[in-house]
Structure formats: C-alpha cells, structure tokens
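Justification of resources, computational component.

The compute hours requested in this renewal are based largely on the per-chain cost of generating structure records like the one below. Each record pairs the submitted sequence with a full structure-token output. That output is archived, and it is also reused by downstream analysis tasks.
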Amino acid sequence: MRRNYEDPVYKRFRLEVLKRDCFTCKMCKAKGKKTRLNVHHIMKWASAASLRYDADNGITLCRKCHDSIKGKESHYITYFLDLIQRG
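The structure output for this chain reads:
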C-alpha cells in the first residue's frame, strides 16, 4: 500500500507526533520555522501495517537526522522508542 500524504488519517497521525515532540527533532533538538521536520515511522510503514497511524510508532526528525538513518532504520528502533518514552 502506498502512503497517501493527503489522507486525513495520515495527517492526524503526523500532527499528533509533531505536537507530542514539541515540533522538535528528537535526535539533535533542532526546531524552528526554518527546520524541515519529518515524521519517521519507527517500525516501517511497509512491515507494520497495524502501527501505521499509531503516534507511539512515530518520531519527529529533522531532514538531516532523517537522512542520516536511511538504510539503518532497524538499528535505531530501541533508541527511538526510548527517546519518545522519556518525552
């Protein structure tokens, strides 16, 4: 299933994660209007269908941090879960 970024359910998921994370990258703490933020699925979109819209499976990352983990996402699962649990 392809992701529909215009889907209201997806938009609600994304906004919920951004609000929870105070619109701040959880890795480097970047924030502000000029920071491009991504909402990253901790457990992959393709392999965790039941978690696609669960805010506990999302984390806010700036573009730089998001790009830095590409291809290594599985190595960050525990780290990301710990970051969102700490708040």
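The chain has three helices and two strands. The mean pLDDT is 93.
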